[in-house]
Design brief:
Structural class: mainly alpha
Distance between the termini: 12 Å
Radius of gyration: 19 Å
Shape: elongated
Largest sheet: none
Number of domains: 1
Order of helices and strands: HHHHHHHHHH
Length: 270
């Protein structure tokens, strides 16, 4: 069997049966273990809400007191859960295929690099949205219902989809780069987790000193969460248009890198 050729050469029809089969595999992979991939993240996020809201609800004011802290916290937790699980879905799927030596069954069929990219990223987006919807449902009893009905739902949809897409793409890049689970853990522990926790999930950046506000503006995760929060309350730390533009640019850069890695077969052919 020739393992030296480039994977995913452009021989198939765009979004053909190979794409549909791979997307179905990605969806079934997380859906068949939903207790682990969907329910567990929802429960973990609920614990964050219970702890932080209990400790800080009476002590933290956001948006000049117009929004209760617990209500402010929920959109950030929803988005954080979506981002982390979208990343986990594509990255873990690819590294498992590499470790179990079954990646060859994806590389050999006539399926293009674009189809592989779209299948992995769409699977990650679907898992992210499923977790985000679950978090929203379980947090409803803890916040007045009207506080969690979005004022601008289209903004929520845009940031949820594009944010999950960016993290699914980043997970794909991490899975390609990683040669074992330890490499992937380094990526998660020293990049994904710090950036998500320092992105304004638990606080408004206006409560920070000027220096740390500036640092926060360099964090692309901040714009994902701030824009998503705008969809709920019509208030944000920066313009949602700016956040959306940065998120789209982030997606574009990551997509270009991922497609290049897939087209050249970087760390996929050995």
């Amino acid at each position: 069997m020739d393992m030296t050729r480039k994977p995913a050469i452009a021989r198939g029809t765009i979004l053909g049966p190979g794409f549909r089969a791979l997307l179905g595999k990605e969806v079934l992979r997380f859906w068949k273990v939903a207790l682990q991939t969907i329910v567990a993240p929802v429960v973990t996020t609920l614990l964050y809400l219970l702890i932080f809201s209990h400790v800080l609800d009476e002590h933290v004011r956001v948006y000049d007191g117009r929004v209760a802290y617990t209500a402010f916290l929920v959109p950030g937790l929803i988005m954080m859960s979506m981002l982390q699980n979208a990343f986990a879905n594509s990255s873990s799927s690819l590294i498992q295929s590499k470790m179990m030596r079954n990646l060859i069954f994806i590389l050999l069929p006539p399926i293009t690099s674009l189809e592989i990219y779209l299948a992995y990223v769409l699977g990650a987006v679907l898992r992210g949205l499923a977790v985000g919807f679950g978090v929203w449902l379980v947090t409803l009893p803890f916040v007045p219902w009207h506080a969690l009905v979005p004022d601008h739902p289209l903004w929520n949809v845009a940031f949820a989809v594009f944010g999950s897409s960016a993290m699914g793409t980043l997970g794909l890049i991490a899975g390609i780069w990683s040669e074992k689970f330890d490499h992937l853990a380094v990526f998660q522990n020293f990049f994904i987790m710090p950036l998500t926790f320092l992105s304004g999930v638990f606080y408004s950046i206006h409560s920070l000193p000027v220096f740390w506000q500036t640092v926060s503006h360099l964090n692309p995760f901040f714009y994902m969460i701030d824009g998503f929060r705008y969809g709920f309350f019509g208030a944000a730390d920066v313009s949602p248009w700016l956040s959306l533009a940065i998120l789209l640019l982030f997606n574009l850069v990551l997509s270009a890198v991922a497609l290049r890695l897939l087209a050249t077969g970087y760390k996929l052919r050995s």
